[in-house]
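Slide 14.
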Amino acid sequence: MPAINREGVMQRWARLALRCGLLFTDAKLWESIRGQLRDRVDDMGSEMKRRYAHTSDRLDRAQDAYEGGANWAAAAGFLGGVGVGVGLGLLLAPASGQETRTAIRNQVVSFKKRAEEAVESSPLRAAIRPSPTGTVGN
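Slide 15: predicted structure.
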């Protein structure tokens, strides 16, 4: 009896091997596998290009920020324009020099007081104010 059972097992294994052999030689199967692999590779390639472009842009922006980029040129141009405008305003002002200096001094003092009040009333100021004992914490 065991010899008959062994022959049945051998026949099943032989059939399985033949089916696998036929499957691996089937042109439609291989074309399907090639198509799926091609699609996957194309998807991966486009995703890699997208990520490379994104990373490259971020690195360019970081390098510009590190080196000072065009932002400093724009800020310097703006501040230069403000300086020229203030200078021309002082030269062409209808008031005398003493009146102009007094008005500028009053504006600076007013701005300083408003800035000090804003800093004192800021919630961040309380958070960084040192404790009376000189220790950190309550």
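Speaker note: DSSP finds five helices and no strands in the chain.
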